[in-house]
């Protein structure tokens, strides 16, 4: 759509012969297309920023998950050691009787 606008705009300026003096007229006739083009560019920039932000957040969450898994593994190892100790203590108590 923008390419058609540029070719049409160039042809119109060549027909009038005034060149840049009639750019106001061109903008007046095609303001909707120009506004849509500018809005599309702004939207694409915002979309790119959002994807970059999401990528950073995913990376941060991935690193946090790795830390949490390491902490969980350490905690489970401590619990297992405690259970083994309790089991041996219980066996010792039961063997005394």
Give a short overview.
The radius of gyration is 35 Å and the shape is rod-shaped.
Total count of domains: 1
Strand content: under 5%
Question: Percentage of helical residues?
Answer: over 70%
**What is the number of helices?**
2
Rounded radius of gyration (Å): 35 Å
Rounded mean pLDDT is: 85
Q: Helix and strand string, N-terminal first? A: HH
End-to-end C-alpha gap: 93 Å
Which short descriptors sum up this protein?
single chain, mainly alpha, 0% strand, 97 residues
Report on this model:
This protein is mainly α. The chain has one domain. The chain has 2 helices and no strands. The protein has helices at 2-16, 23-96.
Ordered list of secondary-structure elements with their pairings:
Layout: H1 2-16, H2 23-96
Helix pairs in contact: 1-2
């Amino acid at each position: 759509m923008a390419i058609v606008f540029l070719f049409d705009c160039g042809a119109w300026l060549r027909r009038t012969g005034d060149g840049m003096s009639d750019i106001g007229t061109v903008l007046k006739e095609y303001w909707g297309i120009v506004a849509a083009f500018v809005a599309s560019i702004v939207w694409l920039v915002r979309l790119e920023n959002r994807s970059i932000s999401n990528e950073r957040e995913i990376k941060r969450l991935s690193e946090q998950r790795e830390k949490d898994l390491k902490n969980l593994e350490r905690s489970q190892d401590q619990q297992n050691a405690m259970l083994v100790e309790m089991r041996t203590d219980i066996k010792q108590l039961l063997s005394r009787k």
